[in-house]
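name: query_chain
kind: protein
chains: 1
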Amino acid sequence: MILQPDPARLLPAMVAAAHRAGDKALGWFHPGERTSAGVETKEGGSPVTEADHAADALLKQELRALDPAAGWLSEETADTPERLSRQRLFIVDPIDGTRAFMAGDPRWAVSVALVVDGLPLIGVLHLPALGQTFTALAGGGAQRDGAPIRVSEALSLAGARFAGPQPLLDRFARTGAAISPQGKVPSLAYRIALVAEGQIEAGLASTNAHDWDIAAADLIVHEAGGFLGDSEGDRPLYNQPSPKHGILAAAPARFRAEMISRLQAMA
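structure:
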């Protein structure tokens, strides 16, 4: 019988690994200027840098040493069906917001989650260039830099601050919602974390978000009193055969019914 690691002990070790990965990536990051990292184009046209690969390698080595029985899913590691047989799975995006990283925009993040039976148990989101770290433990609340965070206390979506791709914001507004568009935050994980700490009321994600984009942030917003869900109101399930998801919205839990209704009206 393989013993499961204690989540309360695992969380600080995962935070430390995320910080080391972020420090490594910072070696190629230049605020306001183009990265000095080598850049390649992946199948599908998205960029990947040597910083992504270096951070991914560090995280894979350190996290798998913490829980050797856990599977592995990362944006920068070739996916295999082997992970589907694992009850526990590390889900990692070594640099969420690679284009921002490349352009010298500090809004990129190291995203690390431990998923158990399809749902996140531990979530860590570290923003090295901003010096911020969000954490959550299932049932234990969410924090930023050690201080508890909560979603916005706004009572209505009227005038609510929304972040997301502009076409998606426009479609949402056409449902009759008088929202205040805030533009697109380049890291999807950070966009959701901003909902968790009440900086914005809602964040939208276009179709084809992947497990690695959202797993850690999902737990963070959930533990901060919010939700992340699709047009049916369902929370994402992780470690499925396909890691892709449809359009998603994050917001305070009190807005769940209205958000679902408006997502359905966008279809």
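note: The chain is about 30% helix and 25% strand.
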